[in-house]
Automatic annotation (TrEMBL):
Domain of life of the native organism: Bacteria
Domain CheW-like as annotated: residue spans: 1-137
PANTHER family on file: CHEMOTAXIS PROTEIN CHEW, CHEMOTAXIS SENSOR HISTIDINE KINASE-RELATED
Coiled coil (UniProt feature): none
Gene Ontology CC annotations of this record: cytosol
The protein, known as: Purine-binding chemotaxis protein CheW
Organism name: Novimethylophilus kurashikiensis
GO biological process: chemotaxis; signal transduction
Pfam families noted in UniProt: CheW
């Protein structure tokens, strides 16, 4: 099962089991020297979580956060993160025959696990294990430590 959402004209999806909650967009706190894909941080019920822009992952132009944007709190193997979406879609059970491994279709997009073909178009399935590279994870860890140190 996938939770679908929109980024520009693209439909994306993530495994529903990785989704903790969705929220309306809110103001972010900046981080010192974050990875390019990280917009900032957000305090959600006492947990400080990095906010990741899939827009930047897809090399789409940045856009200012809007009250109509959505935040998706999702668990990655490293930590929970917040993904920014233009709009939420539906929970969708893809047909196995319509699922295509990403490396066959889009080898340059290593952070996708696959693509689902539907009547409405393609759904790009995000690989939360590869959302941030090892280098980006290390850079984020350092930025989060610097933020926590400065906040004390």
């Amino acid at each position: 099962m996938l939770l679908t959402f929109k980024i520009d004209d693209w439909t994306c999806g993530i495994d529903i089991d990785a989704v903790e909650k969705t929220y309306r967009a809110a103001a972010l706190t900046s981080l010192p020297d974050p990875p390019h894909a990280v917009l900032g941080i957000l305090d959600i019920r006492g947990a400080v979580l990095p906010v990741v822009s899939l827009r930047r992952r897809f090399s789409l132009p940045d856009k200012a956060l809007s009250p109509t944007d959505c935040f998706i709190v999702a668990r990655t193997p490293q930590r929970p993160v917040v993904l920014v979406a233009d709009a939420l879609g539906e929970v969708f059970a893809p047909d196995a025959a319509a699922l295509h491994p990403a490396e066959h279709l889009m080898p340059a997009l290593a952070y996708l696990t696959g693509v689902v073909s539907t009547r409405q178009g393609l759904i790009l399935i995000q690989d939360l294990e590869k959302l941030l590279s090892l280098e980006e994870t290390a850079q984020l860890d350092l930025a989060m430590r610097d933020y926590e140190h400065d906040a004390i």
